[in-house]
Amino acid sequence: MHKPDTRTVSNRIAQQCARALQADGHDPADFFRHTGITPAQLDEPGGRINAERHRRMTAYAQQLPPQRGILDLDVTQWFAHFSGVAHVCFNRPTLRSALHELLHLRGLIGEFDFMLMSESGTRIEIEYLSEFCPAGGAMQALANFRMLSLVARAYDTGAPTAFRAHFRGKAPWFASAISECFGASASYGQARNTLVFDAPDLDRPFAQFNPTLAPHALRHAQGQLQQLQGAQLFSARVEQAIIDLLGRQADADGASLLPALCDGLAMNRWTLQRQLQQERTSFRALELRAKSRESRRLLRDTTLSVAEIGERLGFSSQSAFTRFFRTQFELPPARYRHDMQGN
Questions:
Q1: Is the confidence at residue 296, as pLDDT, over 60?
Q2: CB–CB of 183/162 below 8 Å?
């Protein structure tokens, strides 16, 4: 019997998707048939949608015309069902703290995408990466950028912050509304989904900060996140263990990682592979995912050369690592590092 995939997203995202499609004239039955999600799962208080159903929902939504309803949601509507995130992010001592907590606590909303933050002077760039739409994800990026903009603007002390949004894919029919929403022209057909803005007051003390309530809200949200992460799959633990090994081992190819992993988990290869098969994955799949994540981190946060990073991750040559990275992210590692440094 297969174990359920507990790495999830909130059912509120599925609710928003279902409502938007219905408002656009699509038959609600099509949504349930294509995604495998049931009406009962949408109505479950605090419910979560598993990996496979979320993947199917993303694939289904990608085939339909993009929706503009996401732009019309205000702060109350956005955070009504994510109060733990709201109580923290709208009550931090500085904008910098608010942004870091938002990126950290996004696991309470979903666990299938990433937002990476980089700074260059007063310039802030947020990159959105989608697990299920690696070659696109523009509409998912739009939703996440909208949420981030609402948090950032809560810390404005003067004119509303203007955000320069860059999206992969073609411009949707409501492109002008996106530019108006973010306060600056958005661009399309770009190599990455990014949101760029100037934050000269990133560390300015927030006048409305409540130091009495803030630590209680943060502990509550962190507790919720830990509880959710504690229910993660065995495969999630294995992936993190591989990442830890990549940081410690000089030789990180699969032949050396697997025995080291088994030693660390105190189990033999047969048991490891069987448990991963029950979760419909494999050591090789998790190794590739871990190396994808770690390669981005090393390019972004270290001064190691591309060749050194490839060697650390167990690739036979710099060209082999470059081919791997290009396959994963559709750009070479040197370009990724250049872009992340804001050059």
A1: yes
A2: yes
| Residue 251: pLDDT over 60 | no
Q: Measure the N-to-C terminal CA separation of the chain; round to a whole number of Å.
A: 51
Phi, psi for residue 166 in degrees, rounded to 5: -125, 130
Q: What is the DSSP string of 287-328?
A: HHHHHHHHHHHHHHH----HHHHHHHTT-SSHHHHHHHHHHH
Tokens of 259: 């025995």
Q: Over the stretch 42-61, which tens digit does the pLDDT of each residue have? A: 877 667 887 778 888 888 88
DSSP 8-class letter at 45? T
Q: At what angle are helices 269-278 and 254-265 packed, to 10 degrees?
A: 90
231 pLDDT exceeds 60? no
The region of weakest confidence among 149-153, 174-178, 276-280 is 276-280
State the Cα–Cα distance between residues 130 and 25, nearest whole angstrom. 27
Torsion angle, alpha carbons of 70, 119, 7, 260, to 10: 160
Structure tokens at 14: 């599925």
Give one DSSP letter per residue of 209-275, joined into a string.
--TTTHHHHHHHHHHHHHHHHHT--HHHHHHHHHHHHHHH-S--SHHHHHHHHHHHHT--HHHHHHH
Q: Three-state SS for 127?
A: strand
Residue owning tokens 């006048």: 207
Query: Can you say whether the dihedral through the CA atoms of 255, 256, 258, 263 is positive or negative?
Result: positive
Distance between CA atoms of residues 232 and 191, nearest Å:
32
How far is residue 72's CA from residue 70's CA, in Å, rounded to a whole number? 5
Lookup: tokens for 95 = 């904008």
* Run of H or E including 115: strand 113-120
* Residues 6+ positions from 184 with CB-CB distance below 8 Å: 162, 163, 164, 165
Which residue, 139, 198, 131, is CA-closest to 167?
Answer: 139
Taking a C-beta distance cutoff of 8 angstroms, is the pair 10, 111 a contact?
no
pTM for the predicted model, two decimal places: 0.66
Residues 6+ apart with CB under 8 A from 213: 87, 91
